[in-house]
Amino acid sequence: GSSMSKKAVVLLSGGVDSATTLALAVRDGYECYALSVDYGQRHRAELDAAACVAQALGATQHRTAKLDLTMFGGSALTDKSIAVPTQQSAGIPVTYVPARNTIMLSLALAWAEVLGAQVIMIGAG
To answer: Which residues does 16 contact at the CB level (< 8 Å), separation at least 6?
Structure first.
């Protein structure tokens, strides 16, 4: 490859979609900067998985941004007063975190600016 490597910030949740996104970016020759967001979600295992995935797939760097979205509530993933459902329901699921992807993309954009990265990738699940 050339010395002018192309950089990508990849949002990494620890789930299958984001892991696949990172794998494809690495395969396509991007220097990948994996970004996970700890927004107070209950599933801490996902963040542990993200760190393992980043290392296993060859991300250049992996960072976890801490962000407290529990202050807004409104989601079973962050609001302790809402039960996590065990079955599908109609409408927007209560596990939906308001504007989560938009907020995460903003964080990725901020890091991309600092890195001089041309691309931001998100495996939206």
So the answer is: 125
